[in-house]
Amino acid sequence: MCSLEKRGNLFFLTLTGDDQHRLGPPLISSILSTLSKISSEATPGSVLITTAHGKYLSTGFDLSYARSAPSPSEALDRLTSMVESLRPVAAAFMSLPMPTIVAVTGHAAAGGFMIPICHDYILMRSDHGVLLMPEMDLALPLPDYFATVMRERIRSPAALREMVLRGAKVTGEEGVKMGIVDSVYDSTEKTTEAAVRLGEELARRKWNGDVYAEIRKSLYPESCRALGLTQKDLPSKI
Amino acid sequence: MCTVEKRGSLFKLILNSDEDDQHRLSPTLISSILSALSQIKSQSTPGSALVTVARGGSGNFFCNGFDFRWAQAAGSESDARQRLRHMTDSFRQVVSAFVSLPMPTVAAVSGNVAAAGLVLAFAHDFLLMRSDRGVLYMPEVNLGITIPDYFTAAVRAKIGSPVALRDVVARGVKVRAKEGVEMGIVHSAHDSVEGTVEAAMRLGEELAGKKWVGEVYAEIRKSLYPEMCSTLGLTHNLIISKI
């Protein structure tokens, strides 16, 4: 599950436990309700830092939960239901009224890669962990909003092809070259520390969170459409 | 004309030089490629991959665009335009067939590649190119002719940098293989025709070794290029697979 801690302006959303943080219905709803709480407590200068315990950020949907369904059609229903329930999580990250930073200290694969790619800043360990879209190997289709968000966040066609169509395992350093990862650090501690430093720097700007969210959304119009987000007309203070 | 060779799970689509060593896209070559792709698609199995190569002639051209000589031989200017329109319309189906082909595709660009020929190369998933000679370019701005909608859609899908896009499309810049790698257009550069073809075959074999399901591959590819697909009129198919 996930935990929430607040230190000053910084919210820490942590995927807890040393497991793979598979996105089954309980974890998905736990993240969604935590994001909703964070959103409701936001003040000017709030920043979100997302991290995970252990060797995995998340390895995607809980396929063993889906496969344990009594029939293949019910298994597919379970997967479809997880795909649909992660959509509002992606929407919540994309509309969160504060800057968002993820410290990727373990593997992030498939649906588990949607979590970092929906953050504003991706910091990553260089000594462990890969970003990976294994859909081709699993012969699973790519949900529409996955493709849309990745297209808008990974602007190099070559990087997009390597990641999505070739299923390349992207390390932190490769991710920097591909324009996916902002910066890398050689341990979990250093990655988290860098995330906190960046978070504090952004917090000092005391940005208005609602304005921040609208500006973020305006950068990713196709993702917003896929996630069902609309632009809000905010009264300007001028 | 083109021919198809099959070695294991690897299909090799060969642009031959029997009629034209620049492999210009005449109505004959276009319909030959289209029927080859249809044949390849019908024979595809999990783990199929396609490598396209140009063979013979001087070796200086991969594909030099539409066959303008054929269009200009029409007699009148309006008939020539009619012939160009015919090639533009029929080549659209070739690009559609590549984008929906149920397997990874690799182009071994072993010489100059221009205009429609570049679109043919861009219709592949991977573009490998020889670095000792040959350029890729879009000469339309220099020739004073407009670019068909699906050409620009294909080029926009494969060139991410706005600067590179302007240089290639609106400036007619001739791009050598190593520059293409820097611009993120060319996957890799190789110092000879043989080196390029060998690397393309190796990549094709590596991709074939993944034993991917072709239909899933084609749908994921299409989801990466929604604008190109909508210009080409390609729609998504829902693949219900086992979990």
UniProtKB/TrEMBL annotation, chain A:
GO cellular component, one term: peroxisome
Enzyme class label: isomerase
Listed GO MF terms: delta(3)-delta(2)-enoyl-CoA isomerase activity
Catalysed transformations (reactions): a (3Z)-enoyl-CoA = a 4-saturated (2E)-enoyl-CoA; a (3E)-enoyl-CoA = a 4-saturated (2E)-enoyl-CoA
Keyword Lipid metabolism: yes
Its EC number(s): 5.3.3.8
Keywords: Lipid metabolism
Biological processes, Gene Ontology terms: fatty acid beta-oxidation
Origin superkingdom: Eukaryota
Pathways involved: Lipid metabolism; fatty acid beta-oxidation
Listed Gene3D superfamilies: 2-enoyl-CoA Hydratase, Chain A, domain 1
Similarity annotation: Belongs to the enoyl-CoA hydratase/isomerase family.
Protein name: Delta(3)-Delta(2)-enoyl-CoA isomerase
Organism: Lupinus luteus (European yellow lupine)
TrEMBL record, chain B:
Gene Ontology, cellular component aspect: peroxisome
Substrates-to-products reaction catalysed: a (3Z)-enoyl-CoA = a 4-saturated (2E)-enoyl-CoA; a (3E)-enoyl-CoA = a 4-saturated (2E)-enoyl-CoA
Molecular functions per Gene Ontology: delta(3)-delta(2)-enoyl-CoA isomerase activity
An example Gene Ontology biological process: fatty acid beta-oxidation
A matching Pfam family: ECH_1
Alphabetical keyword list: Lipid metabolism
Broad enzyme group: isomerase
Pathway the protein contributes to: Lipid metabolism; fatty acid beta-oxidation
Name listed for the protein in its UniProt record: Delta(3)-Delta(2)-enoyl-CoA isomerase
Catalytic activity, EC: 5.3.3.8
SUPFAM superfamilies tied to this protein: ClpP/crotonase
Entry keyword Lipid metabolism: yes
Family: Belongs to the enoyl-CoA hydratase/isomerase family.
Keyword Lipid metabolism: yes
